[in-house]
Input
Amino acid sequence: MPASSSGSRPTTAPSSTSTARASSGSSAAAASASPSASTQPASSASLGQTSSTNTFRRGSIRSPPARSSSFLRTARTRVLVELDIRNLAIAEQLRVSFSPGLNVITGETGSGKSLIIDALSVLLGSRADADMIRTGEETARVEGIFELEAGRTEALELLEQSGIDAPEGQVVISRELRREGRGPVRINGRAMVQSQLVALGQRLVDIHGQGDYMSLLRPAEHLLFLDRYASTTAQRRDFARLVSQIRGIRSDIAGFVEGDRERVRRFEQLTFELGEIEAAGIEAGEEDALRDERGRLTNAEDLTSLSQAVFEALEEGEVSAVDALGRASEALAQLAHIDPRLDQAAERLATVQSEAADLSREMRSYGDEIEFNPQRLEQIEERLARLATLKRKYGATLGEVVDYAAQARAELERLSGGEQTVEDLRTRETDLLKEIAVEGEKLSSARRTAAASLAATVESGLAELGMDGGRFAIRLLRQEDAEAGVTVELPLEECLGAGENAASGSTGTTRFDRDGLEDVEFLVSLNPGEELRPLAKVASGGETSRLMLVLKSILGSADAVPTLVFDEVDAGIGGLAASTVGRRLRDLGRHHQVICISHLPQIAAHSRTHLSVTKEVAAGRTSARVAELGAHQRIVELAQMIGGPSDASVAAAREMLNAAGGGESR
Output
């Protein structure tokens, strides 16, 4: 424990107090040099004592704590920036800030270290019950702020699919627990269901020690890890495109074959309909012309009498209208001869007289052409009725009927060519199967080579961490599929690893999917004499955490999950192995943010950020406290972990930090 906390940096301070926090750390470093000083960090904020700027706001997106420019320059990957815990177990009000790289959490047994990991697990969707809520409170809340690096990450893609904006890559997740009923879950202020939270959490954090979030314990992830290690991800994507093509072709073939009866029925139906339309011999504008003719035949008597009346008014009588207009036109012409100003009037009257004479002749001719023809009227009615029937069956207008006929004709052509189409599709299927077989064998070969290399590297890493005799292998499983597979000569099962190269069976015709010709599963044996078993079935605890550490450090940037959490990684080790674990954790921090709970100073010495957790009792209530330690406080804390507040322990702690390179302390 630190000798004095006036030099420590409390993680509960919000961004507005970051300057004061830093100055506090520098000003008190010398004052707390003595190992005999108090072991409680005085400046680490109690969970019940937060500033007004630490108010938890429902669904809001708060700015993360301010970071110095040097911090931003060294941030190498997307990170969990801050965790805010309210009324969870012994945490009344707790805000913890994390940095990129390795973050180590230390403290005495029962101080509340695991509470931070439990809160993170709850935040990301793990099961939680009312017993986790602080005594005397009705609700508990956890909120986390994540900053995702620019670019298309899996987490950002999932948020986009869910319709959630992540401005500048910032994601704020909050979850409330209630004694009665289910509490709300919010991501960037939007209410979400827990299943969405779990899916997002698996893309943000791997918690090693809590199986729900350990991606390496999910066999479906093993093939992806192997492909990243083997640099065959692009090769797998190309293979997946071939599989998509053949699935489409097989779907088309199935549609033709399974729907043959329907095809015949449809062919006969279209043949009848097209014949009915073509037999009608529809002509453009025909319907309107028939309606006009029907109107004339129906009203023949009225048309004859009215046209005769017009003719008689213009031509008959003692003085017909045409004759009267003629005499008037001659008189006006004489007037215009005398007075030229009447020329235009004379011309107009002459025009009227001429139009009247033409109209008279037109009415006479029109009346002569009109006839009453009941037989023709009946033919028109029948034709219009036939056209109406076609419109009722095939379209609202004759134009739509004609369009339907064109569509039916085109579909008939396709149906009539169905047999040839199926033959063409089967030829394309055969060609694709050959291509899939070739590319699939190439992908399998690359995976076999990479699997042997990865297994040997893992076993070497296990030995470095004090797990001599630990074995690791990768099993490739294939299945026969005589109906839909590809013809290749590959074993049904291969077990590849250091000293392992077992194969059994032969596929002949192998099942394939978008990922290739095989399934991949990691096998492990952590104790001499024990057989290899699936990774997911290995007992949990420190050994499993160290195995995860080895795998994660080897895969490095191949692992897409940004934040890795290790609990119990130091169980059962010490000395050189502990220092090796610390170095591997630090190296892993070059590609990921790493959060580790540890009891060993050899591991804590490698941290970039060192958080100390304590607890206190005030007014009869227990509250956890957390502080980020400055350089001097780290020495005192390490000394306490080594053997207590003695000069020898302090010297050993200082030497340990120097050997670890200062842990890249910020």
